[in-house]
Structures are given as C-alpha cells and as structure tokens.
Design a protein that fits this description.
With 270 residues, the chain is an alpha/beta fold. It contains twelve helices and twelve strands. The protein binds D-glutamic acid (DGL). Residues 7-9, 11, 37-40, 70-72, 127, 130, 158, 194-196 line the site of D-glutamic acid (DGL).
Length: 270
C-alpha cells in the first residue's frame, strides 16, 4: 500500500481522518495492533519489539513510509528504530515533531538552533510510557529554551476510549486535568500527546478553561505529511487501495472504529 499509518489501536484514526480529509486521493494502509493495546503501560523494550513487528508487516505490504500515529511508539521506539533497524530505502516518521514545531512557531523541518518562544508554561497529557520516556522534553529542548513542561500520565484513558466508555473517559480527563493543575495552576498551552485524546478535546478544553490553547496532533501531522510528500514523492509507495488492518478481532475492531469515527469502518485481519 501507499502511506502507512500505525497505532496500537484506534487512536491513530484521528490522524487518518484528518489525512483523508486533506488528501482524499492518498491511499493508506492503517494498522491497529489491537491485540496488544494499550502500549502506554508497557516497557520500552516491549513497545520497540511490537512496533518493529507491525511496521515490518506494513513494509512487506508495499509501504515505503509509515507514520507512527502513536505517541507512545514515537517516544519509546522511534529513535531506536531509526538507529538500529530501519531498512535504508524506508522511512518512519513520528507525531511529536510536527506538534513541537507548531508550538515553537517553526516551519516544518526548520532545524535552526533552539531559541526563546512566547509560550513558557506547557502542560503535557500523555500515556505513562510517553511521560516516562521524556521524549517530548528532549525534542522541545532542540527547538526552544526556557519552556517549563509539566507532564500528566493519563492512566486508564486509552482503555476507556478503546472500550467506547465515554463517561469514564470524561471523568478521567477531569481528574487528570485537576491533578496537573495542582502542580501547574496556569498553563498557557496544553498538548494532547496521545492520538486517542482528540476525541476528548472538548472535555480537556472545558476542564482547562478558555485561556489555555489546546494543541492536538491530527491537523499538524497531516499538514507536515503533505509537505513531506511534496518534497519526497518517492515515498508514496505502491498500491492504490486504502486498507484497515488489525491484529485483533476484525469484527469487534470494526464496530469500535465505527463508533470512534462515527462512520462505517471495516477492518481486516492483518
Ligand atoms: N494512541 C496511542 C498514543 O498516541 C495510544 C497508546 C497506547 O496504546 O497506550 O500514545
């Protein structure tokens, strides 16, 4: 297939949905590792092994470029994959960098030295594995100086969203925002650092208040992908059909995905 989009489960569909709106003619291969979700409570070694397995399967199906639409895999595995594992003619891109470039008011791919930026107090909401990797702070430090980041591990939220339990998800968002605000009462910006969380963007915004700018990844990743493909047309890969693959039960995953995106979705066995 053409461009691969990978997530541990359904969260990457928020990124897929935006890409499909922005580039309706782009065929994609979406891969949900539903049999092993959530990744956010696993060790870095475990996440690395699972992510390499899934991305390798997408390369075998003809993808040249895979977007890790999963912050946990981007945080815990991407750098190691690029250094030790990635075949020379293939690319894997994560979802952190486009968001940090937007937060630090940079053009896509601007690698000039770190500089002072307007935003000084940033709240990061992410999975426990993403928070403990400190990958967000590391990538931010390459681009900005003097930014204070307070990170909140949002235990339970991915499971609630994968199970379609919106009431539990809402209660968890409010309690995680309260916990964050006890440590950082007045964040200027909040990063939804998990691709499942845009589904709860309104609840995050309400709980944080109207003065906080909430950044979510879907539109930023889609815009940076479009820019990347313009610069690297060889990365389109083969294949003309969009496909949704899962390591879980295709019927159950299709039902949950239909509920998640509020339109008919059909997954096949990976
Ligand atoms: N959507 C994934 C992310 O962005 C979810 C991680 C998980 O499986 O816990 O981190």
């Amino acid at each position: 297939m053409a461009v691969g989009i990978f997530d541990s489960g359904l969260g990457g569909l928020t990124v897929y949905d935006q890409i499909a709106r922005d580039m309706p003619d782009l065929p994609v291969c979406y891969f949900a590792d539903s049999a092993h979700t959530p990744y956010g409570t696993r060790t870095a070694d475990d996440i690395y092994g699972l992510t390499c397995g899934a991305v390798g399967a997408m390369f075998d199906r003809g993808c040249n470029l895979v977007i890790l639409a999963c912050n946990t895999a981007s945080a815990a595995a991407l750098r190691r994959m690029q250094e030790n594992w990635l075949p020379r003619d293939k690319r894997v891109l994560g979802v952190f960098v486009p968001m940090i470039e937007a937060l630090t008011e940079r053009n896509w791919g601007d690698n000039s030295p770190p500089r002072e930026v307007d935003v000084k107090h940033v709240a990061l909401f992410a999975t426990p594995a993403t928070v403990s990797s400190r990958a967000f702070q590391r990538e931010l430090a390459f681009r900005a100086i003097g930014v204070d980041v307070e990170a909140q591990p949002c235990g339970g939220l991915v499971d609630a969203l994968e199970d379609g339990d919106e009431m539990l998800a809402e209660a968890l968002v409010r309690s995680h925002v309260d916990a964050l605000k006890r440590r950082m009462p007045h964040p200027q910006a909040a990063i939804l650092g998990c691709t499942h969380y845009p589904l709860m963007q309104q609840t995050f915004q309400e709980a944080l208040g109207p003065d906080v700018t909430v950044y979510s990844q879907a539109n930023l990743v889609s815009a940076s992908l479009s820019d990347y493909l313009n610069r690297h047309p060889d990365m389109y890969g083969e294949g003309q059909e969009t496909q949704f693959l899962t390591t879980g039960d295709p019927r159950q995953v299709s039902d949950r995905a239909t509920q998640f995106l509020r339109r008919q979705m059909r997954f096949e066995a990976a």
